[in-house]
């Protein structure tokens, strides 16, 4: 493996590290090697959980909206009404309500997506980063491989980095990894002993060397590498010395770390996947019902056309069937109000208002940390409480998970906070299931 060497002059000028990938048996990767020059160029990177961007909003939004059965139907009716002599109701009787519906839905999408963007931007701030021999504040998207980053208590770490020093006497720190693995208990990380005393800017300015580490992968619990300081023997680096992007620093005044992975090379981004479009059960049922109404409308149009032909009695004309398509479209436009266009916009407004009430609900307010419930999207409000199975493990003995019983629905029964009624309800429900099993 070839190692790129840096001259003494360039080390004094840039004060950076070289990161070299080498393939492991568990992660067969190609050789990648490069020199990190802190002063040459800036790598811009940021991530966003927002659904839309400025350029993709219109096409993506229209695609999502017209994938709904009702909107696609009314778009079809709007196109039919633009055909001369087909529409008995004018050209804009459906177009204007459809535009109002799309505008109201678009405003809701923009507001919710903007709130999501603000939450991400609040995490894209960092930290203090060393360039040459001083620290300055830098946003997360300007953090490069080889930078020495200083993070303070409560901040989210901007990249995967090797812990070199901290404010604690034992050179340790605590991080919350709930964004990575969902666990709420704090994890302890230990700094490298070879760099534990490097806490001042003067000491950091004399730090130079290279880091050899494994290639980017998605395994949170593994890391293999070594730190090579100039004039010293290599120091092994394990997962206990690595701070991952997305974790939050806790109960530690500050830490210092050397960035080894940024952007899509971080384990956090390696585990990210493109989320599918989520649709609630209400929306799925609504689409099915709209499809049934469409077939009913088509059947009514056929019956009406047949009755019309019988009424005017044009059987003696051999070409009476030539106007079949034209007349059928007229009846479809006449009956199109069978599917209410106000249904979707009413659902949009009700869901958005319901999400606001969820955010304001005092029953879901944790007064200990003054944390309220947050509805990140109003599309899935009706999915709350749709629980079929409840699993419990023993991690609650360490993290103190508090689950307060409020109310239980076992159709057609319901019971509130009462042990007697709860036991009676469960007994009735089990007896009913046993009886159904025996008769089948």
From TrEMBL:
Organism: Ailuropoda melanoleuca
Superkingdom: Eukaryota
Keyword NAD among UniProt keywords: no
One MF annotation (Gene Ontology) recorded for this entry: metal ion binding
One Gene Ontology CC term in the entry: trans-Golgi network
Domain P-type ATPase N-terminal: 48-95
Membrane-traversing stretches: 20-49, 61-80, 288-308, 328-350
Subcellular location: Cell membrane; Membrane
A Pfam family hit: PhoLip_ATPase_N
Catalytic activity: ATP + H2O + phospholipidSide 1 = ADP + phosphate + phospholipidSide 2; a 1,2-diacyl-sn-glycero-3-phospho-L-serine(out) + ATP + H2O = a 1,2-diacyl-sn-glycero-3-phospho-L-serine(in) + ADP + phosphate + H(+)
InterPro entries in the cross-refs: ATPase_P-typ_P_site, ATPase_P-typ_TM_dom_sf, ATPase_P-typ_transduc_dom_A_sf, P-type_ATPase_N, P_typ_ATPase
EC numbers on record: 7.6.2.1
Keywords assigned: ATP-binding, Cell membrane, Magnesium, Membrane, Metal-binding, Nucleotide-binding, Translocase, Transmembrane, Transmembrane helix
GO biological process: neuron development; phospholipid translocation
Membrane topology, as annotated: Multi-pass membrane protein
Family: Belongs to the cation transport ATPase (P-type) (TC 3.A.3) family. Type IV subfamily.
Main location: membrane
Full protein name: P-type phospholipid transporter
């Amino acid at each position: 493996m070839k190692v790129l060497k840096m001259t003494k002059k360039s080390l004094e000028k840039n004060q950076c590290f070289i990161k070299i990938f080498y393939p492991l048996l568990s992660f067969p990767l190609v050789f990648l090697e490069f020199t990190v020059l802190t002063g040459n160029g800036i790598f811009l990177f940021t991530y966003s959980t927002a659904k839309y961007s400025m350029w993709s909003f219109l096409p993506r939004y229209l695609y999502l909206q017209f994938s709904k059965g009702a909107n696609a139907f009314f778009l079809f009716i709007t196109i039919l009404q633009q055909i001369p002599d087909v529409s008995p109701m004018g050209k804009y009787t459906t177009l204007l309500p459809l535009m109002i519906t799309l505008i109201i839905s678009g405003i809701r999408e923009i507001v919710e997506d903007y709130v999501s963007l603000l939450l991400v931007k609040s995490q894209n701030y960092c930290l203090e980063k060393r360039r040459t021999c001083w620290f300055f504040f830098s946003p997360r998207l300007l953090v490069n491989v080889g930078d020495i980053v200083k993070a303070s208590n409560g901040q989210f770490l901007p990249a995967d980095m090797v812990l070199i020093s901290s404010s604690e006497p034992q050179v340790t720190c605590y991080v919350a990894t709930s964004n990575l693995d969902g666990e709420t208990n704090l994890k302890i990380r230990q700094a490298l002993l070879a760099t534990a005393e490097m806490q001042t800017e003067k000491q950091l300015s004399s730090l130079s060397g290279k880091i050899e580490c494994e290639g980017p992968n998605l395994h949170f619990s593994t890391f293999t590498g070594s730190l090579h300081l100039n004039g010293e023997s290599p120091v092994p680096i394990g997962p206990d010395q690595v701070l991952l992007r997305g974790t939050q620093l806790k109960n530690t005044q500050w830490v210092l770390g050397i960035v080894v992975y940024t952007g899509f090379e971080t384990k956090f981004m390696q585990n990210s996947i493109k989320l599918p479009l989520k649709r609630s059960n209400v929306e799925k049922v609504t689409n099915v019902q709209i499809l049934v109404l469409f077939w009913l409308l088509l059947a009514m149009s056929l019956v009406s056309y047949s009755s019309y032909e019988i009424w005017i009695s044009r059987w003696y004309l051999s070409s009476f069937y030539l106007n079949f398509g034209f007349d059928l479209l007229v009846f479809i436009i006449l009956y199109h109000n069978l599917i209410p266009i106000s249904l979707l916009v009413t659902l949009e407004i009700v869901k958005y208002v319901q999400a606001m009430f969820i955010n304001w609900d005092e029953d879901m307010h944790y007064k200990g940390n003054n944390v309220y419930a947050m509805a990140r999207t109003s599309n899935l409000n009706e999915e709350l409480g749709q629980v079929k199975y409840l699993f419990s493990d023993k991690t609650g003995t360490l993290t103190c998970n508090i689950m307060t019983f409020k109310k239980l629905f076992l159709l057609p029964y319901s019971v509130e906070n009462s042990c007697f009624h709860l036991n009676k309800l469960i007994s009735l429900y089990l007896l009913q299931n046993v009886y159904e099993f025996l008769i089948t």
